[in-house]
Design goal:
alpha/beta, 15 strands, 55% helix
């Protein structure tokens, strides 16, 4: 429930705080006074797109504050939980700020809120029906959605639409696969060929192969170098070698150990060096005296090296990087081989189709069952609105081709209407006048609202130009309808009809003043001021005793 709406530097309003009553609130005023500004402000608090033109001329920013009471409103409490926000009180404050540079900001209870969040929360707090709602009646989709809402079939309709989308997505996927099947097979063959070429290199370390090949290619020269090194370290000839010289140095140090400890330390280190030289000598001896390697091993290494060089040139990559590239080829191949073919998807497509058909069939059966009593409600509400002979009927026509089945089901649904005795019912767009469409739109909106769970908290219902195409006694019936609805739900409506305005629980006048800068003022009317406004609406600019008496009679006729 909206408690108050505060506007600052918003369009023609400099600053005003409006307390909104529980029940039916009506907005009246001269054409151009700014009646729609309140609806624009509420729309902005519900996440509507901002326009810098709404900032009052000469101001930097416009601010709108909407103060709501959400006591026992479970859907709002759930929204706060879902969005990980804390609802500490039973009231919430939405603030929307518009800048003259085109930017806008929003806050929820003092905390910044995104436009997406504000829009989702706004739908729970405010339900705005524009003056163009009657045009929606001419669209078959609106009629179907309204029937589902009235029959409490919105969830099943959503499941049916989702099942249809699943089926369609699978079918499109299969068509795409069929179109690129040839490309897929060519790619698979190419990857298989590449992996077959590089397979010998995948089981080895190419850098180790290169090192082994380098060594074996020069093995004889390396063995000779090992023999020469061995000769320098230890030989049986008269030539000096490392081991002989090292033995002499050890003997010298041992002789002087008693004189200086330095020689003792040197002797210990020389013995360590002697042991290490002995190990090196054994190592070089084994290398120099080894048998020549198997020629087949060298040939195998030559083959691997040649393969690496060939593939490196072919793919313009160093041979060492080809291994990583091969891993990517393998992943691509596995993905392509595991990708279901268009034939493999046939079973899934059929299953999805059957699931959609089952849901669509159930949905249509329940729609057909619910349609007659809903039409009866619609007729009962239309007849008092100067349509005593109103008749309507939902007609279900199965689509001739399954290719025409869609997310809404397998039947075309039309709402047929006739307002005149003896005239056949036809689709609304063929026969309904503007006034008839207006009344039909209003009744359908009211029925949809009243069909919702009575125990659940309901959003504020807002009607723009609620009386389009009606006048006289019909307008009074519309006003009574809105007043009755206001006893269980908060409403706000703009009207030009005194008969409608007289039925309101609170009457708000929007009045324009021309000073240095034009300004609109919001006034809550009571007593004589309300009588004068109703008289103006009934009789024009000049208010007479006759028009005042008529206005008083309208208020007297209001039922509690």
């Amino acid at each position: 429930m909206l408690l108050s709406l505060t506007l600052r530097q918003f369009a023609l309003i400099a600053e005003h705080e409006l307390n909104v009553a529980d029940g039916f609130n009506v907005i009246t005023g001269e054409t151009g006074a700014g009646k729609s500004l309140l609806l624009d402000a509420l729309s902005l608090c519900a996440g509507a797109r901002a326009d810098s033109a709404m900032v009052r001329h000469g101001a930097d920013n416009a601010d709108i504050y909407a103060h709501f009471d959400v006591t026992d409103n479970k859907v709002v409490a759930e929204w706060f939980l879902t969005h990980e926000r804390v609802l500490e009180e039973t009231e919430l404050l939405i603030r929307r700020q518009l800048s003259n540079n085109g930017r806008s900001k929003a806050w929820l209870n003092g905390t910044p809120v995104s436009m997406a969040e504000l829009k989702s929360l706004g739908t729970l707090l405010i339900n705005i029906h524009s003056q163009h709602a009657q045009q929606a009646l001419l669209k078959p989709q609106f009629v179907v959605q309204w029937l589902d809402a009235m029959a409490q079939l919105t969830a099943l309709a959503a499941q049916t639409a989702s099942a249809y989308q699943d089926y369609h997505q699978l079918k499109r996927h299969a068509d795409n696969l069929a179109n690129r099947e040839a490309q897929r097979q060519d790619r698979i063959q190419l990857l298989q060929s590449r992996l077959a070429d590089i397979a010998p290199l995948l089981s080895v370390d190419y850098q180790d192969i290169e090192a082994e090949h380098e060594e074996l290619s020069n093995i004889e020269a390396l063995m000779m170098e090992a023999s020469h090194g061995l000769h320098l370290l230890d030989n049986d000839t008269d030539e000096p070698d490392v081991m002989t010289l090292l033995g002499q140095a050890i003997k010298l140090c041992d002789q002087q150990m008693g004189v200086s400890s330095t020689f003792g330390q040197a002797s210990e280190q020389l013995h360590v060096a002697q042991q290490q030289i002995t190990e090196v000598t054994a190592l070089l001896s084994d290398y120099a005296e080894q048998q020549l390697p198997d020629p087949e091993r060298l040939q195998e290494l030559d083959s691997l090296i040649s393969l690496g060089h060939r593939l490196s040139r072919k793919h313009n990559l160093p041979a060492s990087e080809l291994i990583n590239e091969a891993k990517e080829w393998q992943e691509q191949l596995e993905q392509l081989e595991n990708e279901p073919s268009s034939e493999a998807l046939t079973v899934q497509i059929e299953q999805a189709w059957q699931q959609y058909l089952a849901l669509a069939t159930s949905l249509n059966e329940q729609r057909m069952q619910a349609a007659p009593p809903i039409c009866a409600q619609l007729i009962a509400q239309l007849q008092p609105l100067a349509l005593p002979n109103a008749r309507c009927e939902f007609v279900f026509t199965q689509k001739s081709d399954t290719a025409n089945y869609n997310a809404q089901g397998c039947y075309d649904i039309d709402l047929l209407f006739s307002a005149n005795v003896g005239m056949p019912m036809q689709p609304l767009y063929k026969i309904a006048s503007g006034g008839e469409l207006s009344r039909m739109a209003l009744v359908m909106q009211v029925l949809q609202v009243t069909s919702a769970d009575n125990n659940a908290a309901k959003p504020m219902l807002v009607f723009d130009e609620v009386d389009v195409g009606i006048s006289g006694g019909t307008a009074q019936v519309v006003g009574e309808l809105l007043r009755t609805l206001g006893q269980s739900q908060q409403l706000l409506a703009i009207t030009h009809q005194a008969q409608v305005a007289a039925q309101a629980h609170q009457h708000i006048l929007v009045q324009k003043h021309h000073h240095e800068q034009t300004q609109s003022e919001l006034i809550i009317l009571t007593d004589s001021a309300q009588v004068d406004e109703l008289a103006r609406m009934s009789g024009g600019v000049i208010i007479t005793d006759v028009t005042r008496e008529h206005a008083k009679s309208l208020l007297t006729d209001v039922k509690s």
